[in-house]
Amino acid sequence: MTAPPPGLALARLLAAKGAVQDPAWHRAVLAVDRLAFIPDTVWVPDPDNPGWDVPVTSDDPDYHRWAADDYALVTQVDDGHPTGSEGRGRVPSSSISQPSLVMAMLQAMDVRDGDTVLEIGTGTGYSTALLCERLGNENVVSVEVDPGVAERARATLHGFGYKPRLVVGDGAHPPEGVYDRVIATVAARRVPGAWIAQTRPGGTVVIPWGPGFTSAGLLRLAVGDGMAQGRMIADAAFMWLRDQRRSADPWHTFVDEHDPATVAGHTRLNPRVVADRDPGWGVVLGWRVPGLAYASFEADPDNHAAAGEATVYVYDRDGSWALGEYVPAGEPYETLRAGPRDLWAEIAAAREVWRAAGAPGRDRLGLTVTAEGEHTLWVDTPGHVIEPGPLGGG
């Protein structure tokens, strides 16, 4: 009896979800055993310790259930050195992506036989193996910043006969070469100009991008002469390029309500707008107010006099912060701020820009990036530009 293809179960799952449409990529999924690329230990959110990930090993039944399903799994925390007790980690630093998202990204590249591909972020090597199946070892270059992650991926890939060019280094500065396609499995706040400069005109760049306030969205850029532009096409929550990720320290690290330099005031802006989950708003807010983060706390439910009230903190990790006291009665809302930036004023201006543009969803937003790394955000067409905030976009 002929043995089933190693990726049969996953291929059937993805086909049932409608996630794989291209027969060539379907054949690649059939040929590659994803489980073989998952390390013996993965990390999942620790329900008993919010903010931490707890290790789960391959002798746990949940491990195999998760590995066989359409899930992303964290495969490294804290750059390989877990900082918590019993192997717990604070910051996920490498993963194996959700298979349906992998397919969305690979199919968005619209590759042709013989195309060359630069992959930023080898990770476990699973996506690299799919690229090799589809295009051949000689047409795939993959860059991984973490030496330990890279070495494990190399061993797994070579064990199955895949021998692309594997490079240990900073993906923002890839090896010299010109490629037909570039795909990144790490998110970028600023798209490195090299990714545009090293893609042939007529080629495609597929990357998770976002200005950093919310998680990234999948961006597909068509490359022209010295520039590229395209729309955001799907959700794509990925880890950030290591030199672009921000501190994971909690909000109170950056806020000092006892600072004698604080300034009290009022705003007409509802402080809760920073929590508006509209993906388009999140992109525009991050673009107009770079570096922004927030934390929100509801009033004590036992304090009936404060029912529905909340305190919203906003901060930039560089010395500016503010709080807004939401009350159901409406404006004006009391504020307190410190630092060189008036964050509530910046957020209010961003809200007006978003509304004036027709409150676009993320699917109406696009980006133009030059080979020098200059970024322009636009709505619907490249001529309808959303100007950056006072500190520049992203």
TrEMBL record:
It comes from Streptomonospora mangrovi. CDD domains: AdoMet_MTases. SUPFAM superfamilies: S-adenosyl-L-methionine-dependent methyltransferases. One of its GO terms (cellular component) is cytoplasm. The lineage of its organism: Bacteria, Bacillati, Actinomycetota, Actinomycetes, Streptosporangiales. This is Protein-L-isoaspartate O-methyltransferase. Its main location: cytoplasm. The keyword Magnesium does not apply. One of its GO terms (biological process) is methylation. PANTHER family: PROTEIN-L-ISOASPARTATE O-METHYLTRANSFERASE (PTHR11579), PROTEIN-L-ISOASPARTATE(D-ASPARTATE) O-METHYLTRANSFERASE (PTHR11579:SF0). Keywords: Cytoplasm, Methyltransferase, S-adenosyl-L-methionine, Transferase. Pfam families: PCMT. Its EC number is 2.1.1.77. It is an enzyme of class 2 (transferase). InterPro entries: PCMT (IPR000682), SAM-dependent_MTases_sf (IPR029063). It is found in: Cytoplasm. GO terms for molecular function: protein-L-isoaspartate (D-aspartate) O-methyltransferase activity.
